[in-house]
Amino acid sequence: MSGERDYICISDDDADDIESISDTSETVQSDSGLEGLNFEDIAEDGTGFYDADNANSHDGYDDVPRPRACDEFPTTIEVPEFVLDFGTVRVGDILELRDTDGNDGRLHRRDDFLVVVKIFENLESGEHYFKGHRLRRVTHFAPLFDCKLNELVVTIETDRYDTRPVSIQGLEIVPVEQAMKKRDVVFTSQPFHEVSIRHRQIFTPVRLRGNRKDIHTWVHNNGPLIARWVYITIKKPKGKPYGGEIRRMYRREQMWYNQLSRPIPLADNEDDDWMIVDENPFVTESGSELRPQRSKAASIPKRLTFGDFFSGVGGASYGAKEAGFVVNFGVEIDEKVMESYEENHPGASVLCMDAHDFPAIPAPENFFSDHCHFSTTCKYFAICHTRDGKDDQMNVETIYTVGPILNVLQTPYATAEQAPGMILLQKHQKYFRVFLSEILAHGYNIRYKVIDLATLGVPQPRRRLLFNMAKIGYPLAPFPQATHGPERSGLKRFVTVKDALYDLERSSAFDSDPHNQPRWFHSSNIKPPYDPNLTLVKGTLTTSGGDNNYHYSGLRKFTVRENSCFQTFPLETHLGDTQTFANMVVGNAYPAAAAAKHFLASAQTREAFDHGLINAEDDIQDLWVTLNEKGINTSGQGGKFRYLNRLEKSRRNPAYMPPSVWKRTEPVEPLRPRPRSNPPRLINRALARQRREVLEEVREAEYLGTIMVIDDD
Q: Residues in the active site (predicted)?
């Protein structure tokens, strides 16, 4: 019939012939006389049908359509619209959802909304359902966000092992019965006060004039909504939290949502106050521009500076030096701790003070650093903390210092680490949200994740909740990729007890060290020995050394100096005078090996952004992959880059599925002994420090392209 499309379905025999071809680049020849058909030309929609009107692309076969393999008849189809009591719902509409308590079906709150991305119909049951992204009022997440009237956040839940894009994982299925009515939503990245209802003309019923409470209720139920936040949560298959991301909506996301939902039309009696024009996602509430100025590609790569808050004796500062930072200062309240910090980091300024007082010091901008790190006290948030302690209040209040300090310093990047109980335990959720709220309020985007530091080269199972923070206008840095794992992972071998103690056990310089004197068990407490070449430290190091952690001989506990090796400290680290004090500072430390990889990932992101290789809104989960997709190779360019020349492709086997970080009793598979060929070496503390300083000067000279002259005397 003229004007109608003809559809042809190939037979099952022809479909079998096509599927039996092993090389898809070869042409298909069938009994029907079809020749010259490339397998890649077959449509990929899986319907088994082909449009004969558009089958004229092959010369000599204008009247013959291309064959398609028939799939089973679909049970679900996508439809353009669906009619409900309140009107016709189409793709792009925003629906207010009915939330029931599961008993009487009554509405008990209006918190959730849905951006309709697709509408489906089940052909067997005739049921319809919507698929889209869920939005939720910010009041639902209090105290994470300021409770603004009619402000929403886009909520997306993802799975750790799901490799699909976040936007696809975030699509939720909602039955049509849950839809109450359509609402108007403006998606923006501007500050709330720039787009709130105060800047709009809201026409309320005349009967409500003068009744402030009723007007508030009417606006809540019928007024325009504002969405400017994105909250992504990463969970395990059983629902336990694993990580997440909270940030201001990117401009590209804002444009996509607004185009999908169509601009809100102006009514005849409305003026331009209803419209949002010339939106700039980098404008602060004061109107100042937040877009950072990219550093020009200098002949000498910039060396970033580092500030260490709650520094302890300097575990994070050791990691920063290893990553290539210049340590500006360390902040700690304990005088004895800062004496050890000054001994370990002689070039850094020592600020012995309460971190709460830092924003009030004279000229705090003099302590500006490119990167700041916060190791806030974690004892209260530890999973093993089950009894109240006398310092609990003081320990909790350390998390309230991060926001004010960032507000004063305005550092482009910051990191933090905390005990994983802060995100896992329900009783700590309010503190977790307050901590994030303080940071978001001062113009930062946040990414967080629970990581077992053993995968970063630490010889102990040590789960930590890591945070990456970036000032709005800078891209969020990814977390470091795992570098160590079991043999099947394709990564480097786990660092074992023997690996960590290798240098210490072969040095006589620490035989008289008061922190390296063994304390033997009583004969009744002797424990079974184990092979140090095959295992990690049995448990996480704590301020008391850790439960069930003992020497592989079974005859004694580890010494404090040995524990410092498990925290990847240099052997010559000054740990204080007493055993109790040394155990405390070692157990509280951020392991230097993990800190170095954590900070290096941030520095590489900053350098890539300064050189224009990435943009502020790039979603970077692996910087090497992001740059590789753009055709950028940074290896072998030591004169141009200081940090990116150390960027490497992850060696993890794609088929390897990392284990859950939440397992309490996870057997460590046997590790094959690592061959040792290096002879024992003596270590002198002063000479070791001098050697590190010389190596640092050599690296600097290499970057500068100068020649270093070393006098014989």
A: 378
